[in-house]
Amino acid sequence: MKIPGVGNKSVLVTGCSSGIGRATAELLRSKGWIVFPTARKAADLDALKRVGFDAIKLDVTSSESIAVAVDWVMAKNGGELGAVVNNAGFGMPGAIEDLTRDAMRHQFEVNLFGLQELTNKLIPVFRKQGYGRIVNISSVVGRLSLPFMGVYSASKFALEAISDALRVELSPNRISVSLVEPGPIQTRFSTNCAGQGEEKLDTEGSRFGGAYKQYFAKRRDGGMSEDRFRLPPEAVAEKILHALESPRPKVRYCVTLPAYLGSFAARFVPAAVIDRLMIEYVKKRFG
Question: How far apart are CA 185 and CA 78, in angstroms?
Fold first, then answer.
């Protein structure tokens, strides 16, 4: 199936176990897209298959897994693909001084290196067929760095930079690159983020140990200040749909109010003012 300006109406969507990825897969299928969703865990793949998806296992930290997934999708879809939605990712919390090299590297392996390796496997397909859409799920903290989420912010800043360069590099080939910056969304991100911190941070040896415990509890129990701005994952899926189907997709899509405010602040508010606001934010959140 084809639509004007998009070509083959098929898409690979990563990170579809729940949240944004699952909502995107379901919305796109309802709009007539052939959707190939991915997940890492067998239980999540089984859940996707039970509702009729052609789901494929994908671990973006593994080059072998990426190659197998791409080959499988190409075989399934006659060697063509209309788009990729790079949604898989996670957030590693913690003060910069508390993060090990391995923890920082893993954050970039998932949120940047694996994402781009997968995309690079698909670019020749897009170029050969003369069209393609690439949608990268970034974050408001890819425009405005957040204390105690600094390495996660760094991975999203890097994703924004790569996407901007790639968009220009691919412009002669009718291949568009869009970024989606959701902000707070009603997903398992906060809970998973707390779990990552508890598992990998040395909370007892850190000067922020007591603050971490309070912070992780809030992330789990819905005590974050931004919770009142959260939107359902379907709100992000709608933006992704526009990026895939519009004749003129936007470069960036903000979703929630904090995302719009963060984008504005990054462009127009002096760094000294942002620093003062962030210091107040840290005092309120961590003491």
Answer: 35
Q: Are 187 and 19 in contact (CB under 8 A)?
A: yes
Percent above pLDDT 90 for the chain: 80
Pairing of β 7-8 and β 2-3 = antiparallel
Residues 6 or more apart whose CB falls under 8 angstroms from that of 79 comprise 125
Q: At 48, list the tokens.
A: 């996707």
CATH code linked to domain 2-186+231-270? 3.40.50.720
Eight-state DSSP code of residue 85: E
CB 16 within 8 A of CB 58: no
- Establish whether 152 is a catalytic residue: yes
Digit-coded pLDDT (tens) for 12-34 = 999 999 999 999 999 999 999 99
Domain residue ranges in the chain:
2-186+231-270
The one catalytic residue among 152, 212, 215, 253: 152
d(CA 117, CA 243): 21
Q: How far is CA 143 from the centre of its chain?
A: 14
Half-sphere exposure of 128 (CA within 13 A, CB side): 8
| Closest to 92 measured CA to CA, from 22, 38, 41, 139 | 139
Q: What angle (nearest 5°) sits at the alpha carbon of residue 132, between those of residues 126 and 134?
A: 110
